[in-house]
Amino acid sequence: MFTTDRLHLRGFELSDARHILDLWNNAEILPTISNEYIVPRGPKFMDKVAASVDDAVMFLTIETRERGGSSSDTIHGLKQAVDTEGGQFVGTTSITMSHPKNRDGIFAIMLEPRFWGRGYGEEATRFVVDYCFHTLGLHRVSLMVFDGNKRAVNLYKKVGFVEEGRKRKVNWIDGHWEDMIYMGILEEEWKRKNED
């Protein structure tokens, strides 16, 4: 298990299956992560999730940490409310590699909407990217994001990812087309950005 300031990132457990299925059945989340039809998924969909877990180099469940009764936390100089109860399911994150010889990890993250805008996505993303470069020995971390997911695009840019390309009009959603943005960060860029 890994620990950041406010999160535990641990390996997948069978008890996480229901939470993950709930994420994939959430009409707020699905349009931001999938170009498939927005339809309910049943328990059989968990076979697909299990295959993803098995194929990942690293698949982590994200949970809140115990804060010893504290009701606020300071992040970037701002006081923010935090959960006083630890162990709440926040979401998942993963690194997959289609061609290990090239040392290019593909990053993914999915959080429950009630945790959006609280800095958990940034905290988990920074941890995973750093772990990829310092421990897994990757040369680059890549990701794909729909251009309509502005919150995620801004987060990835803040962390240091740069746009490397775009597949135009790849996803039909809510009566309009969205592009798929391809982003990446190289090991040397990460080191330079985090020298301070």
Question: What attributes does this structure have?
Answer:
35% strand, alpha+beta, two-stranded antiparallel sheet, globular, 196 residues, single chain, 10 strands, eight-stranded mixed β-sheet
Shape: globular
The percentage helix is 25-40%
Number of helices: 6
* Straight-line distance between termini: 27 Å
Describe this structure as you would to a colleague.
Helices cover 28% and strands 35% of the residues. It is α+β, with helices and mostly antiparallel strands. Mean pLDDT is 89; it is low at 68-72 and 74-84. A hairpin with a 2-residue loop joins strand 4 (72-75) and strand 5. It has an 8-stranded mixed β-sheet, with helices on both faces. A two-stranded antiparallel sheet has the order 4-5. The chain has helices at residues 17-24, 30-33, 45-55, 120-134, 150-159, 187-193, and strands at residues 2-3, 7-11, 58-64, 72-75, 78-81, 89-96, 104-111, 140-146, 162-173, 176-186. The protein is built from 6 helices and 10 strands; from the N terminus they run ββαααβββββαβαββα.
Gist of the model:
This protein has 196 residues and is an alpha+beta fold. The protein contains six helices and ten strands.
Record the SSE blueprint.
Blueprint: E1 2-3, E2 7-11, H1 17-24, H2 30-33, H3 45-55, E3 58-64, E4 72-75, E5 78-81, E6 89-96, E7 104-111, H4 120-134, E8 140-146, H5 150-159, E9 162-173, E10 176-186, H6 187-193
